[in-house]
Amino acid sequence: MKKYTLLLLLCFSYNFFATAQKNSDIGIFAGASYYLGDINPGTHFYKAQPAFGVLFRYNVNPRLSVRANAYYISLSGSDADFPEILHPDRLYSPAVFKTSFLDAALQVEFNFLPYTPGIRPFDFTPYLTTGISTGLIMGSDAGAGNFASLPFGAGIKMTFTKRICGGMEYSFRKTFNDMIDGIENPSGVSSVIHNNDWYSYIGVFITYKFYNFAADCPAYE
Q1: Integer Cα distance of 15 and 90 in angstroms
Q2: Number of neighbouring beta carbons within 10 Å of residue 37
């Protein structure tokens, strides 16, 4: 009985991963990242740093995809650039930090159009994305530790050839950590919504598609 059960599990696993591979693409991402928090509450693209990594996307159907990505993110800042933000008699004088980490995320992508590579006009679509992510600290002079975050963003993706796709994405991360910049709640007022730090990235990606919807799937003809 155990042998039959193991055989069924092996067959199921093979079919699952074979199907997943045929509907998937893998690629690389490159862009820039920046920080928002106690030092910099609202200046976008402040001290932008390189961001890059890899991604794997499983295309559930033309409207929905699931994506896993691992991106290297670097953030930096100095309160000397924002002398009016923090109280002048603070103990952080000046506060300068640099933090780098691996952004590991699992996200869903909602396509506005029924994205079908190889078939015009559906070989292009804007999309929205959200999910869960974690920051695994690789280096920090601010004393930051690993943290969880809530990602959300928007982008576009398009088909260049039957197998090569690409696009651009702009994403924000609401972290559950207030020590990315080394400054924790300088105002002394606790707030679940506003106290934690944010970071963002923008960039382009190129992917290789294992499966060609137009050629291999009659449902999309």
Answers
A1: 60
A2: 22
